[in-house]
Fold each of these.
Amino acid sequence: MKLGFRPEDELFRQECADWLNDQMAGEFRDIKGITKLTGSPERRKEWEQQLAAHRWSCIGWPTQWGGRDATLAQQVIFAEEYARAGVPGRVNHIGIELAGPTILTFGTDEQKQRFLPGIAAGKTVFCQGFSEPNAGSDLASVRTKARLEDGEWVVNGQKIWTSLAHISDWIFVITRTEEGSRGPKGLTFLMMPIDQPGIEIRGIRQINGDAEFNETFFTDARCPADSLIGAVGDGWRIAMGLLAFERGVSTLGQQMGFRNELDEIIAAARANGAANDPLIRQRLAKAEIGLRLMRYGALRMLSQTDHSKIDGAALTYKIQWASWRRNLGELAMDVLGQGGEISEHAEYEWDTLPNLFLFSRADTIYGGTNQIQRNLIAERGLGLPREPRGNA
C-alpha cells in the first residue's frame, strides 16, 4: 500500500486548493464555514452550479457526463482540499455521490440522458428515501408499496430521515412491489419527482437547532413506469450497490472535516488551559492517533475495494468513524467546560464545537446503527450465522 501521492497529484492538489480558496475569499466568501446543512440553501445551490461551471462538481464521473475522469487519487485530493478550505457540505451530495454513480452503473442510456446532466450541472438535487419508522437501519423491512397502474408506478407509504428533502427535486425510493414479499425479495428502486400532490414533506427539528431531516409521506404518488433502476424486484441489489458508493472517496474528505474539528478542540484547550490537564492531553493524543489510523485504513480500503460491492473494510469503517467522532464531541465539551453549554446567539444556534457534540450523537445511528453494523460485520464480513429474528 502506497500512502503518498505522486508529484503530478500534488500539482493537482495545488490547483484544487487555489481554486477553492479563491472562491471562498471571493464571490462565495459568505458561505465559508457554514456547518448547518440547511444554512443559506439558495446560495449553496448557486455554489453547486459554480462547481459545475468549472467542472469540479463530479470530477470522478466520465467527461461525457460533466466530470473529469479523475483518478481515485485525484478524487481523494479534491475531497480533502474541499474540506480544508472550509467549504460547506454539498447540498447535492446524494445526487453526486449516490444517485449519479448508481445511474451510471445500473441505469439505461435513456435514464443517463434524463438524469445525469441536471445532477452534474447542480440543477437537479436528489434525496434518499430508504429509512422508514419501523425500518431504519433494517432496509429489508421496508413497507412502502408501489403498483403499476396505467403506465405509472403508484406509491403509498412513509419514509423518514430524508435529508434535505425540502430543497430537493427528486427522491430515489425503495418500495415493495411484490404483494406478500418479505425481506430483500420483492423490492424495487424508483426515481420519483418530489414536486407533486402525492408527496408531503414534514421537517424534523434536531437537538442542535437544525432541521435537515424530514418525514416524507406518499399518497398515490406517481412516477413513470420506466423510472425504475434495474428490474422489478431488483431493488435490493441496486440499494447494496448504492451503499457501496457511499463508502467511497468522500470518506477522506469527511476525515479532513474531522481534522478541522480536532484542530479547533486543540486550539481551545490551549487557549483556556485545559491542555494542562494530563487526562485531557491523553484524550487529545488518543483522538489524534485514531484519526491517523482511520486515514490509513480508508486509503487501504479505497486501494483494495471493488467499489460496486461492500467488503469487510467498508463494513468496519462506518462503526469506526462514528464511534470516534461521538467521543470527539464529548471531548470537545469537556475541553470547553460549562461555557460550552451556553449559546451566545439569540436563537438556538451553536458554535462549531457544541454543534459537533450535539450532531455527533446521531453519528452512531444514521447510515446504519452501531448495532446493525456489528450484525453486518458478523454476517456479511465474517460469514457467521444470522442473528435469530422473531416473527413480529
Note: The radius of gyration is 21 Å.
Amino acid sequence: MKFIVVGSSHGGYEAVRQILMSKPDADIQWYEKTNFISFLSCGMQTYLEGIAKHVNSISYATPEWAKKHGVHVFIQQEITKIDPKAHKVHVVDHKTGKERDESYDKLILSCGADPNKLPVPGSNLKGIYAMRGRDWAIKLKEATVNPAIKNVAIIGGGYIGIEAAEVFAKAGMHVTLIDRNKRLLGNYLDHEYTGMLTDEMETHNVNVQMEQSAAKFIGKNGHVTAVKSEMGTYPADLVIESAGIKPNTKWLKGVVDLTPRGLVKVDDYMQTSQPDIYCVGDATTVRYAPTGKTARIALATNARRGGRFAVMNALGAHKKVPAVSGSSALHVFSYQFASTGVKQDSAAHFGINAKSTFVVDTYRPKFVPNKAGNAKVYFKLTYDPQTMRVLGGQVMSKMNETGDINVISLAIQQHLTVMDLAYCDFFFQPGFDRPWNILNVVAQKALRENNK
C-alpha cells in the first residue's frame, strides 16, 4: 500500500508515525514544499529568546530519522494538483524545476494555513515580517539583535502577537501592539483576566492599542517607518503581522469540497469528499465538545490527533475522531494562563446559556510566603446553570497552575458536573498545592451560588 503525506508539521508528522506503527511495510512518500521538514512554529519563541539554541532543533523529525524508518522524504517538492479518479498527484520539484506524476493508494493532506497578509497601502515595504515558519524564525532572530531596530509594531493580539511582543520587549525594544478587538486575548479569556494581562504588557514597555487596525504602512526609502491606524500613527522600524491565518487550500478548489471560508470539509473520520483522501490540521474543522458542533480550532493538538485518526481510518478502522475542548495556554511575562471550552463572555456566540463562578485563592497554603513559591491563583469555571454540566474553565497565576485545565477539558468531554468536581479526590502536600485543590474550591463555590 502506498501513502502520500503532504505537509510535515504536526498533522503530517503524526500521520507518518501512525503509518509506521500500523502499516510498517507501507510505501510512504512524505512531501514538504520548503527546504526543511517538520519545523514547529509554536516553538519559535523559545528559539528567539535563546532557550532553544539552534533553529534546526525546533522540529519533530529529520530526513535522517525518516530514512532510517524507510520513509521517502521529498524536500522542496510541492504537490500542486490531485486527480482523485486516477489516484495521482502532480509534483513540482522546486530545486530542479522538473515535474512528474505520482500514484497513491491513500492521500493524507496536512496543508495547513498561511499568515494573513494585510491588503493595505505600503504592504510591499521592507521590514514587514510574519512569525510562522523556519525562514521567518531566522530573520526574526537577526532582528532581535539589530541595533537599528528600536520600535516594533505588532499587528494582531492573539497568541502569536503576544509572543512576538514579549520577545522584542525582552530584547529591549519599544513595542506597540495593535488589535481590532475590544480586549487583549478576548478570544481566549474573559474580562477578569484580560485587564490584568494588558496591565502586565504595559508594565513591560508594550504599548497596547485596542479597537483599531492597521490602515497604512508608512515608509522611507522603501523601508517601513510607521504604522497608521484609524486612531493614530505608531513608529515602527519593524512590523510583525499576526492578524490571523488563512487555509492553504486554493489549489484544492474543485478537487474536494470546501466551506465558504476555504476550509476542507471532512467527516468524523477525517475523510474529505473524495475516497481515499483525508485532510487534517489548520485547514479543517473539528467537533467542539461543549456544543457537539463543528468549529475551527487551529491547535497543534488537533492536527496531531487528526493525523493519527486519518491514517487509522484510511486503513479501515472506522474510528470517529474524539470531540475537543479547545484547550490552550500561554505565558505573558510573569503570568501563565490556560483556558478550555466555553468562556462566559463568548457563550452567546455559541448559543449557549452559561453561568460562571470566579475565585481568587493561593497556589499553596497561606502560611507559605510568596518568595517560597506561593502566589495568587485566579480560576473561573463555566457551566450550564440547569444541568450544572461543566462547559469551560480559565486559570491564571504567576505560578504554573495551567495543568488544571487538562482536568476541565476531560470533564467537558466526559460530561461531568460541578458536583463531580467539587469533591473530586486530588492530592495535598504543602510543598506542591493547597488542602482543597483550586478545582474543588471553585466548584464548591459554584454549588453554593446555585443552592445545590
Note: DSSP finds ten helices and 25 strands in the chain.
Amino acid sequence: MGSYDKARNGLGSSEKHGQTEPGNEFDVYGDESHADIKYRTMSWWKAAALMLAETVSLGILSIPSVFATLGMVAGCILVISLGLIATATGYMIGAFKLRYPHVHNMADAGMVLAGPIGREVLGGAQVVFLVFSCGGHALTGMIAFDTITAGASCSVLWAAVAAIICLILTLPRTLNGISYLSVASFISVFTAVMITMIGVGVAGHHGGVTTTANLKFASAFLAVTDIVFAYSGHVTFFTFLSEMKNPADFAKALYALQIADTTLYLIVGVVVYAYTGADTVSPALGNTGTTLRKVAYGIALPTILISGVINGHVTAKLVFIRLFRRNGVASRHMTAHSWTGWLTWVGICFTIWTIAFIIAELIPFFNDLLGVMSSLFASWFTYGISGIFWFHLTPRSERWSTPWQKTKTVFWASIILMGAFIMVGGLYASIDSIIQGYRGSQFAGPFTCANQALA
C-alpha cells in the first residue's frame, strides 16, 4: 500500500497506537461554504504552475556553472539523481499532508513531530529561509535592471524597485490568483534560457569542456549545493497543498514539476556548458553578448520577480495563519474582507519585503550567505525532513516486516543522513567561499550605488 493510501486510511503511527495528535481533526481554513475569501480553489495544474515557477526560476540560472565546475558527467548524474530523490521526498510531504489535513506549513509539521519546540524550530527556519530567498530575488532583480539599463541609475534604487514590485504582487490573499502569474513566469524563464542557448550556439564553441574535474572538496560541494537549491521548492509544498481543491491530486503536480525541471536543468546545463566551456558564468543569462544579455534579462524579469512573490506569499501566509488560527479555530478575519484582516495582511507583506531588501543590500557577501541558508535549511526541507516524516507515518512494527519494508527503512534513513551531510558539507563550502572572498576583496560595500550588472 502506497504512502498516500496509508495516509488516507489513517495508518500513521500515532493512530495505530490509539492516539491522535491535537488539531488533527480540523482543516486549516475551516468551512469555506459562506466565506468571502475562499482559499481551497486550486486545481492540480495550477499547483504545478506555482511549483514550477517557484522552483525553476533562479535554480536554472546556476546549472551551467555547476557543469563547468564538476564536469559534464558528474553534472548530469547529480541533476538526475538529486531530482529523483527530490521526487520521492516531495511525494512524502504530500502523504504527510493527507494524513494531517491541518498541516499548513513546516511549523505545523514540527508541532506534529515534536510539539511546541518542533513548531517554533521548523516555523522559524521556514520563515528565515524564505525571507532570505526573497532577498535573493530582490538582489537578482537589481542585477537584471542594472544589466538592462547598463547601470544608468543607482543599484540600490533598482533593488528597491524590485522589492516594491514583489510587494505589490504578493498582496492577493490566495495562491489561486498568483497561479496565473506563475504561467507567465515559466514562459518567461523558458524564453530567456532559449535565447541564451541560441546565443551561445551562434557564437560557437569556446573554452574547454571536460567530462570530469579534479577539485578541492569545498569547491565541488559548493557546486552541489547549487543543485540542491535548484530543487528547494519543497519548503512551500504544504501551503500549496492546503489551497488545492483536492490535495490527493498533488502527485500529478509533483510529477509534472519534476519531469519539467529535471529536463530543463539537463538541457540548459549541457547546451550552455558545451558551448561556453570553462568560460561559463553564473547566472546563465550572462553567457551571451551584451545585446542578447540585455534581452534575456528583460524577458527573465517576470520569473525573477514572480518566483520571489511566491516565496513572500508563503511566508506571509504562515504568519497570517499563526495570528488568526488558534487551537484549530479560524478567525473570521481569515476569510472575510475585514479591515483587520487586510491591514494585517498588507503589514506582514510590507515587513517581509522590507527585511528582504535590507538584508540583500546590507550584507556584502549575500550570495554566499544564501548558500549558508540553503545548506542549513534546504538540505532538510528538500531532503532530510521527508525521511523523518516517513518514520513518523510508518509504525515501528512495520518497518522491518518484509524485504520491501526493510529496503524503504534503509532508504529513508539514508535520506535523513543525506540531509545532515549536505548541511555540514554545504556550510563548510559556503563559509570557505566567504573567507576566500574577503581575502580576494571580492565583496562590494553595503548599499552601494556601483553598477552590479554582469560585464
Note: The beta strands are 325-326, 329-330.
